Amino acid sequence: MKKFPWLSVSFACMAALAASDALAQQKSITISSWGGAFQKAQREAWFNTVEKELGITIKEETTQGVQDVRAQVASGKPTWDLTTQGYSTCALLEKEGRLEKLDAAIVNDPGVPKDLKSDYCMSQIVYSVAIGWRKKAFGDKQPKSWDAFWNVKDYPGQRSMRRHPVYNLEAALIADGVPMDKLYPLDVERAFKKLASLKPHVGVWWNSGAQSVQVLQDGEVEMVGAWNGRIQAAMADKEGRGGPLAITFDQQMLVSDAWMMPKGAPNKELAMKALAIMMRPDSQATISKYINYAPANTKGYDTGIITPEMAANLPNSPQNIGKGFFLSVDWWVANQDEMIKRFDAFLQQ
To answer: What was the pLDDT predicted at 26?
Structure first.
C-alpha cells in the first residue's frame, strides 16, 4: 500500500489551525447593545473590567431590537454572545425558544429582584418613563403627575409621547384616576378613550430617545413623557433653545434592559463569566457614574460607589422607587401585537 506522508503533515496543520481559531474565538466575545451614550457607559463601567479580569477582548456591535436577535438565531450561526434588549423582549424571545438558558452556577446574584430575572434573562439596568418639561413654560408650577400632563388648561402647550402603545396606555389610565397598583390588566377601552382626549395636543409622537428630548430642547413641545436618562442628560445641556428643563419621578413607570444570550451563541461559557462580572454589585453601581440609569442589582446601593447625590437622580434608589411602579412584562408579552395594531390605527384616525 502506497503511503503519502505529506497527507499526515497536511492534516496536522489543519488541526493546528482549527485549534488556533477556536482558541482565538475563546479569547473574545461579541456583545451587541443600543450604541450611543449608553453603550459608551457600558464600555467604561463593564466591558473594560471584563477584558482585564478575564484577559479577553469584547467586540461591540449594535442592535435595533428583537428582529436582530431573531435573525441571529435563524442564521444557524449567531455571532453575538450577549445582547442588550428590553426585559419584555427577553420574555418574548424566551417564549419563542430563541435564547440560551443561563447557568445559575455562574450567573446568580441575589441582589437582582426575582421579577427582573428569569432562567434566560438578567436585567442589567433600571430606568423609567418620567415626565419632563420646559421650566419657562410653566414658571413655578410643576406638572408632577400624568393628570397634569393631560391638563392643558392649567399647563397649556404641546406634548410629546412615544409612538408606541407601551407607556401611553398606562399613562392614560393613571391620568384618568386608576391607582398605579390597580392598573393590570389594562382597561384598554378606557385608556384609548383618554388618549383620544389628549391627541390634539400631542405635537410629536417620538420614535427615538434622541428625538424625545430634542423636541423639548428646541421648544417644539412644553412637556414630554420619556426615558429619565434622556431627560436628565438634556437637563445638563445648557445650549438647548427651549431653556432649562425639569423632571419628576412621581408616577414614573419603571422598566429594565436585560442581558440575554441568543440560541447557539458561540462562546457561551465565557460570555456567562463576563455576565457574572457585569452583574456584581460593584460593577452595577459603577454604571451610574457614567449615565443616569440605575443598577438592577440593588446591592449596588450598598457599595458606597453611588453617592447620595447620585441616588437622588436614579429611579430605583430607596428614595425614588416608591414613587412609581414596574410595567407588567407578562401583560405586554401577551397583548403587545394587538395593541400595536390598534395604536397605529388610532394615530391614523
So the answer is: 60
